[in-house]
Write a sequence for this structure.
């Protein structure tokens, strides 16, 4: 209780930096998703400061809101990097057959969200270099390590592997999954590259908050900002 109150006070005294952008307003009206507005400032910062053409990676895309936002700021700052996404559109809680008390099947909901993702990317980021790979992050990294040739969900054949310049981590938020997502990303993240972790703000109910403390103690990484989610830059190999 006291922690909750203290976090509220902290947030009031130290509000997130917010970017005002008319396009993002229109995008977020139409593209379902879970947007922490402070992430936009972080993504804009990354795209302004990144010096590499290596691919971006997003873990956890849902309906594509963050994907479209990353793509928009990349374009705005003249970046032409390839952009890989890993999501299998299998949600926590979907082991239940139906959505709540309805007759809507969980598996139909997954298909609906995946189709929404495809439609949102095709409309808001057309002709882009976005390659969504239908895999859980662990399996995605296995394919990445093997430099596998795979088909993305738009039926484009792409080669995985190599260095990564920016990762947005928004998949499974448990400690163990976040740890593996970080370690797997770290293997490929270039010096100077960035990682943004969603839902890691101080006081978040998600276990991934614990991972942030560990990465803060990792001397290969520098905390760039908490806005309120954690953005790190890799400063040494
Ligand atoms: C919080 S939502 C992502 C929200 C999205 N980034 C946005 O801006 O709206 C989490 C997503 O992560 C996906 N996910 C869960 N576990 C995953 C895993 N192990 N690997 C990849 N994606 C995962 C889910 O299918 C879901 O689409």
């Amino acid at each position: 209780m006291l922690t909750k109150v203290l976090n509220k006070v902290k947030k009031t005294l130290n509000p997130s930096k917010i970017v005002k952008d008319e396009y993002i307003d229109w995008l977020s009206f139409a593209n379902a998703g879970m947007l922490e507005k402070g992430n936009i400032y972080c993504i804009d910062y990354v795209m302004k400061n990144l010096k590499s053409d290596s691919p971006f990676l997003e873990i956890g895309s849902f309906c594509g809101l963050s994907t479209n936002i990353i793509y928009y700021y990349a374009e705005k700052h003249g970046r032409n990097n390839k952009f890989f996404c890993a999501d299998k559109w299998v949600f926590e809680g979907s082991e239940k057959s139906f959505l709540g008390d309805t007759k809507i099947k969980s598996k139909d909901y997954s298909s609906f969200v995946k189709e929404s993702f495809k439609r949102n990317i095709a409309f808001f980021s057309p002709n882009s270099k976005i390659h969504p790979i239908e895999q859980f992050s662990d399996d995605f990294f296995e394919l990445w390590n093997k430099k596998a040739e795979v088909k993305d969900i738009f039926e484009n054949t792409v080669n995985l592997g190599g260095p990564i310049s920016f990762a947005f981590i928004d998949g499974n938020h448990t400690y163990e999954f976040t740890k593996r997502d970080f370690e797997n990303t770290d293997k490929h993240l270039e010096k100077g590259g960035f990682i943004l972790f969603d839902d890691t703000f101080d006081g978040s109910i998600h276990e991934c908050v614990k991972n942030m403390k560990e990465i803060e103690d990792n001397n290969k990484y520098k905390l760039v900002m908490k806005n309120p989610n954690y953005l790190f830059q890799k400063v040494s190999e």
Summary: The CA atoms of residues 29 and 49 lie 28 Å apart. Residues 2-234 form a domain with the Rossmann fold fold (CATH 3.40.50.150). Residues 33-35, 59-63, 65-66, 86-87, 89-91, 136-137, 170-172, 177 surround S-adenosylmethionine (CB under 6 Å).
